[in-house]
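Following up on my earlier thread - several people asked me to post the actual chain instead of describing it. Fair enough. Here it is, all 61 residues.
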Amino acid sequence: MDRHVLLFLAAVLSGFALVKVPLSGTVFAAFTPFTSLIGVLAIIVFSLVLIIKGILALIRK
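Reply from S.P.:
Thanks for posting it. Predicted structure:
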């Protein structure tokens, strides 16, 4: 298995973690919109990369 695929999957999971992390009541509460934005962008970008790599793998075989 391609080692990069696992790295991309870990990036998608970390994006979900950034979206779901509760920051209210902490010092970092002001950064909630930024962490959500970064999390959503990570989910979208790395999910698209995984889809493209899957399609390319299907075409090659």
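DSSP finds two helices and no strands in the chain. That should answer part of your original question.
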